[in-house]
Amino acid sequence: MGRPQLELGVSAQERAELEAIAGSRSLPHALVRRAQMILWSDDGLTVREIARRTKVTPAAVSNWRKRFREARIWGLHDAFKPGRPRSHDDDRIAELLNAALLRKPEAGTHWTIRGLAGETGVSKSSVQRYLKLFGVQPHRSRTFKLSNDPFFIEKIRDIVGLYLNPPDHALVLCVDEKSQVQALERTQPLLPMGLGYVEGVTHDYVRHGTTTLFAALDVANGTVLTQCKPKHRHQEFLSFLRHIEANVPEALDVHLIVDNYATHKHPKVRAWLARRPRFHLHFTPTYSSWLNQVERWFGIITQRAIRRGSFTSVSDLRQRIQKFVDHWNQHPKPFSWSATADSILEKLARLGKVISGTRH
């Protein structure tokens, strides 16, 4: 007959928790199986029957029943395993991080994994692990440029105000030109993408000329007005302004966000705008093209329609651009601008403290 099974005394709350564990698809399978063992035991099944269902030995079932009686549900979890002792103490890790952050190698501009390993005496695998753990990436860098515009704050508040609180009965357009868009034709046909390998393109190409893409992005609905021109002088910019004027209802004011390119400030452009009081120009601060949303759209069209294309002529390039623009305007998606002027200025102040070394 064997010795009688001891009662587990599962409460209603414990049973509800055990059922949640047993029905989980995200918890470890071993924990789910142990919860099922306890539930079946509470239902009156024998140890042997539970062992048969869970495909473990009766001794294993008895062990988890004992763990549950002693520690309840917490007893079903695996015990903490300390593992192997640490190979490097805090001082050694601090030495490694200080070398990566505060010093430069004698014969290079940045550290490599092998270089840091040789400098500190820590193994390459450990150096790689610690750098990843603390988010230190000496092999990478990113560019930045601080504006020297004396009216930087005023321009930031002006443009961000247009994004977050646009004026009534007006259209806010981000305007710029993408110059020198090259019509490049690959010297050999593309190797199509397949299972297990990516699309292949030749590294060399034939140049067929360039075009300049003028674009005006409506920040409210995401649609764009575009024109392709052979050059990007003030004459072409004036022509594009006339194109905007012809496509915007006369009842609306037009606020144009542009950068400080000389073409946008040409005397003939100023004279044209002076004769049209509904047009208002808002200049971004110097070195702050990121503030103009149309730059993001230029990045999208470059990535999706230009960079990996192969064009037999400038005319072919223009047709591809127009096809992308038509498709974009059929499914426009405006960019979501959430940054306030104060948050931008606070971030730049923190960056300035990092550069000057005064941040504590």
Oligomer: single chain
Return the domain count. 3
Task: Quickly give the CATH architecture of the largest domain.
Answer: 2-Layer Sandwich
Number of helices: 13
- C-alpha termini separation: 74 Å
Q: CATH superfamily assignment of the largest domain?
A: Ribonuclease H-like superfamily/Ribonuclease H
Specify the helix fraction band: 40-55%
Q: What is the N-to-C succession of helices and strands? A: HHHHHHHHEEEHEHEHHH
According to DSSP, the number of beta strands is 5
Q: What's the shape?
A: elongated
Core attributes:
360 residues; alpha/beta; Nucleotidyltransferase, domain 5; 3 domains; 13 helices; 44% helix
Chart the SSEs and their pairings.
Elements (H helix, E strand, L loop, with lengths): L11 H11 L6 H14 L4 H8 L3 H14 L18 H13 L10 H8 L3 H11 L17 H13 L5 E17 L18 E14 L5 E6 L4 H14 L5 E6 L8 H8 L4 E5 L10 H13 L7 H17 L10 H16 L4
Parallel strand pairs: 1-4, 4-5
Antiparallel strand pairs: 1-2, 2-3
Provide a descriptive summary of the structure in words.
The chain has helices at residues 12-22, 29-42, 47-54, 58-71, 90-102, 113-120, 124-134, 152-164, 234-247, 267-274, 294-306, 314-330, 341-356; strands at residues 170-186, 205-218, 224-229, 253-258, 279-283. It is an alpha/beta fold. It folds into 3 domains: 12-76; 90-134; 152-349, Nucleotidyltransferase, domain 5, CATH 3.30.420. It is elongated, with a radius of gyration of 33 Å.
